[in-house]
Write a structure and sequence with these properties.
Layout lengths: L2 E6 L4 H12 L3 E7 L7 E2 L2 E4 L12 E4 L3 H13 L3 E4 L6 H14 L3 E3 L5 H14 L4 E8 L9 H14 L19 E3 L2 E7 L5 E9 L2 E9 L6 H11 L5 E3 L6
Helix pairs in contact: 2-3, 4-5
Length: 255
Amino acid sequence: MSIKVIIAGFKGKMGSEALKMVQNEMEFEPVALIDPFSELTEYQGIPVYNHKEELADIKADVWIDFTTPQVAFENTFFALEHHFAPVVGTTGFKESQIEELIVLSKEKQCGGLIAPNFAIGAILMMSFAKQAAKYFPDVEIIELHHDQKKDAPSGTALKTAEMISSVRGMKVQGAVDETENLKGARGAEYNGFRIHSVRLPGLVAHQEVIFGSKGEGLRIRHDSFDRTSFMTGVNHAVKEVVKQNQLVYGLENIL
């Protein structure tokens, strides 16, 4: 029996890759596409809708969301309310919003996933950084993305920072009398260390975690050169969330 999938944001760069993946997976069946600006009523034989409310009575199992931070929370809330297990790659969620969605998912007994990054290599990079932080507490994060990315720092960088902080604790880095001759030169502060965001055309998604200690350094880096790198994780997530009864944050929680 196939897993019936709704895709929100199917015209975007990530959404279009997700649609290809769903179409090429024998276990999946795309049943609806959402784009608020589309004038199409169907795309490649799949019904297209402008508003999520039009999908309230559709029979579907999973809601894939690659939209924008402005609508992702409402979309995910709607999906959970209608028992469409959400697989969300849109970033920019507030911690309070994630907590609210987890509570709702428990009430609805509906699985789901919000993931800052679906690339398996990125998940390993974050895991390795967490391990390294136990022994190298001095750290900085540099994340690099294409210039159309809306939020900074990236969700992956924030997730990495959270994971590092869970084993590192609070430690203020840099000189006590450090000053910025240009505001923001040292990046955003997170629990005593810094996160730097780079936005340039030609980039896709890249992150480097740099550790320093007496007489040595350690660099952990992941690069996504093409958006197809995320689809293995999305595929796995779709298959897993239908087995779960609550939403989780981070792909590592269902690997």
